[in-house]
Amino acid sequence: MDGGGSETIRRANLGRALKPRSIAVVGATNALEKAGAQAMAALMPFPGTVYPINPKADEVMGRKCHASLAALPDAPDLVILAVPGHVVPAVAAEAAEAGAGGLLVVSGGFAESGEQGKRLQDALLETCCLSGMRLLGPNTSGYVAPVNQCIASFAPGLDVLAAGPVGVVAQSGGINLSITLLLHQMGVGVSYAVGLGNAADVTAIDVIDFLIDDPETRCIALHLEGVADGRLLFEAVARAVHRKPVVVFPVGKEDVGQFAQSHTGNLMGSHATTVAAMRQAGAVVVDGCEALALAAAALACRRLPPLSNPGVAVITGQAGPGLVIADRLKAARVDVPQLRPETVARLGELLPPLTFVQNPVDTGRPGPAFGDVVRTVLDDDRIDAALIFALDEPSALDAEAVLKSVAAGTEKPIVFASMGTRDLSGTRAALAKEGVFATDSPDALAAAAIALVRDSQTRGRIAARQGGASSARRSSTSPVALPKRLDEATAKELLAGYGVRTPRRRVCETREAARDALDAFDRPVVVKVLDPEILHKSDVGGVHLGIDGIDGLERALDAIDRIPGASARRYLIEEMTRFDTELLVGGINDASWGACLTVGIGGVFTEVMADTATRVAPLTPVDAREMLLSLNGAPLLTGYRGKPAANIDGIVDTLLALQSILTDFPQIREIEINPLVVRNDEVIALDALIRTAI
């Protein structure tokens, strides 16, 4: 775009809309049951200028009313519309003419309601784009910005929300307010909480970029229901995590997306890809609104540095809760290391006998030495963060004073949990100001620690893979076009051109040719149906193993000829390969995320085992190796019970070859090798499937 719709103007206008000095409310009224009155009431604490717009009123809630946007003395930074949806495009044109920075449309009846609503939304969006005015919504609950005392929302009672360090971005207005209220209940305020609604213009990407530069925001909490621009979202989150932690709750676990005809499609549904991409970008991914609020609140207090395996200490005044916490951590593969011998010796001097001091550290009922215990543990170089649990016992421990003192002397994160009959919200708020996140249960304490560790580990992985380059071997004779439907033989020819080893094979148009092929290979051989329409050949009797004579060949050919729905029947004769392990490797060209790769334990149990890892391109060799080693079945590859390690470099090369194919041929919708068979010295693609966009 150029002129009024230039990106520079659009970015500036987003800032005006989210940090307004003046707000106009179109449809403002004194009738309390109407949306225009609710919007005006929500803006009562706003320190800037509020312009009620209503041609039938002289004043609204004590403020002078104007007949139209054109009658305003100054251009408003934000225009809130409390009018029916069908008049919104006309009002938007008036707002653009008045020089407004942004438009907030709460009304529904737009693209979410059908084709007619989509046309209405398109007209609204065209006006905004041509002028550079930013559109929040439509169909949104608005946003709250306690840091600016700006409640641009029709929901009642939000003026009590405290300003705080968490910026919330949610595609659902209801979820936006739910997460905000959860943070409020935890005693943690928000900087911004933005409901995107239909996100016709302002998207999660725009708000993330805004929050990156917002000095009041220390952590970004993101709720996703669907991702239209996955690649841009990935890049925005990757930009953010270098400066601020990002926590993501992606909804839609059961959605398998549009690639559901093959194993790869089932394993790389849109939700699975979203989760993998967000983790790869550096975000902490959680499952639920409460988990999102808890993780964001903890990360907003203090962050671990990038580490491959942070060590966490558990210090508890009661043994039972300490065991629960340690169990949760170890189940999540969080390192709870033994303390140094000198640390243990010092703790032995501070604590009474019969307490456990190896990690967890059981102090018994906390006493005067509790602060020294925490300092001693944090001084251990194996420990990067400390979790502390103690029941609220004011006569035994002034936790607030002790932890404030300890936190002042260390950069290492401290997370505290306590329970009791007193109201501890004041203690939690006071500790948060010192960088100590405080919560109320052993489970919440463990969940907060896991979020801290995941944030550290993802950034550690990002640092480790920077500078890596793809080493895929590309074919110098790759075709520039592909047929719409590729059979297995054609798919293997393409793979071979990219350095992927495949079995010796012969395509046979007739049974006589198949008999000749039997004599051309060492026996036994594999006999397969060759038909691009049959995706799962073994399911229909199209794969026959161990054929070592003419009688077996004839039975295999008879079975293949009986497969229903066949086109012109062809046969594929291949050498038979011995192997130790089967893998699946595959990829898709996703409309939202672009090229994505997956690897997992293969064979007929692929979907049952569901032991897979997914990443978005571009992958480096470091990424591909990390994918492999993240599998639960990784010991099958690295060697176990005296077996030699597999050729991991060969698997990495295969993944990178698939990445190159997907990049070179964007018309490929999906590519899969299942199985990719692995021996200690060889990696061979036994079966291959390629589907193109039709």
User: What is the annotated CATH architecture of the largest domain?
Assistant: 3-Layer(aba) Sandwich
CATH superfamily of the largest domain: Succinyl-CoA synthetase domains
Main sheet: strand order: 9-8-11-10-12-13-14
Total count of strands: 29
In the CATH hierarchy, the third-tier topology of the largest domain is known as: Rossmann fold
Distance between the termini: 32 Å
How many helix segments?
23
Largest sheet: 7 strands, mixed
- Regarding CATH, which class of the largest domain? Alpha Beta
Mean pLDDT: 91
Beta strand %:
15-25%
Taking all Cα atoms into account, the compactness measure Rg is 31 Å
Shape: flat
Helix content: 25-40%
Based on helices, strands and strand pairing, what is the structural class? alpha/beta
Q: Please, how many domains?
A: 5
Q: Runs with pLDDT <50, length 5+?
A: 255-268, 469-480
Distinctive features:
23 helices; Rossmann fold; 6-stranded antiparallel beta sheet; 694 residues; 7-stranded mixed beta sheet; flat; 29 strands; single chain; alpha/beta
